[in-house]
Amino acid sequence: MKYRIDEHGWNHAARRIDSPNFDARPPDGEISLLVIHNISLPPGEFGGPGVEQLFTNRLDPHEHPYYASIHALRVSAHFFIRRDGELIQFVACRKRAWHAGLSSWRERERCNDFSLGVELEGADDQPFSAVQYERLNELIQTLRAAYPSLVDLAGHSDIAPDRKTDPGPCFDWSRVRGF
Predict the structure, then answer these.
(1) Would you say residue 171 lies in a domain?
(2) Does residue 138 sit within a domain?
(3) Catalytic center residues
């Protein structure tokens, strides 16, 4: 196995960028769900610093018209996989990242309490890169080894169907292994 999660919940193979947008998991917050998202900032554009800036509360509302409406959001994810396969970690797995929002899975509310969030650099209407699937599958293998309680996989649209559409119709679920 290429990666390993340490006792604090950090994957040292990932580039670490600390987000302030997290808190402690509740006592019953055993990790059981992996949530797949997509994000690009500005929308539909890849490779820039927008996602990192959003997750670290440094998004400049004057840099792009879209940023004016989202710069005050306090959101994060545990992991972000760029189009080129780069893996970035913003929040330790043992902490609760703020990625799911109002959500429910298997009649259990507040998915942030018991999930890990993985953002893929992408958009609903564009295919993801082969290396993103490769990196995602490596990450899944690593996370399942570290957290045997991780038994479910869902898209953001599955846990918040009235609010979210990601990872979108271009995400190929058949390319995901490990669940």
Answers:
(1) yes
(2) yes
(3) 119
Question: Is 64 part of a structural domain of the chain?
Answer: no
User: What confidence tens digit (pLDDT) does each residue in 43-83 have?
Assistant: 999 999 999 999 999 999 999 999 999 999 999 999 999 99
Q: How many domains in the chain?
A: 1
Which residue range(s) make up the domain with 101?
A: 15-41+75-175
Q: Which tokens in the block code for residue 138? A: 């490596």
Q: Where are the beta strands (DSSP E) in the chain?
A: 15-16, 22-24, 33-39, 79-81, 87-89, 95-97, 104-105, 108-109, 115-121, 152-155
CATH of the domain at 126: 3.40.80.10
Residue 83 · residue 105 · CB < 8 Å: no
DSSP string across 104-129: EETTEE-GGGTEEEEEEE--TTSPPP
Contacts of 142 (CB under 8 A, 6+ apart): 1, 2, 3, 4, 5, 11
